[in-house]
Design a protein that fits this description.
The chain is mainly α and about 70 residues long. It has two helices and no strands. The protein has one domain.
């Protein structure tokens, strides 16, 4: 919950409508999003398959980051 809520707050505050100038945001995730992926190297196109609540939470953060970028240009 903390990861997702914090990520939502960061991207909300970085929205262009809230800032006078563009604020770049870099989101660093974790390999836990991909679970026991057999294909290496893992990249953003690899399917998500989290095995823990932590991995699922970080995957939700990634999805929010992508949506914020697409909708708000963050």
């Amino acid at each position: 919950k903390v990861n997702l809520t914090g990520t939502i707050n960061v991207f909300d505050q970085a929205r262009p409508s809230r800032r006078r100038r563009e604020v770049p945001v870099v989101y660093a995730s974790t390999a836990a999003v991909y679970g026991n992926c057999g294909n290496l190297p893992v990249d953003e196109e690899s399917p998500a398959a989290p095995l823990s609540a932590y991995g699922a939470d970080k995957h939700a953060c990634e999805l929010h980051a992508r949506i914020a970028g697409a909708i708000h240009g963050v």
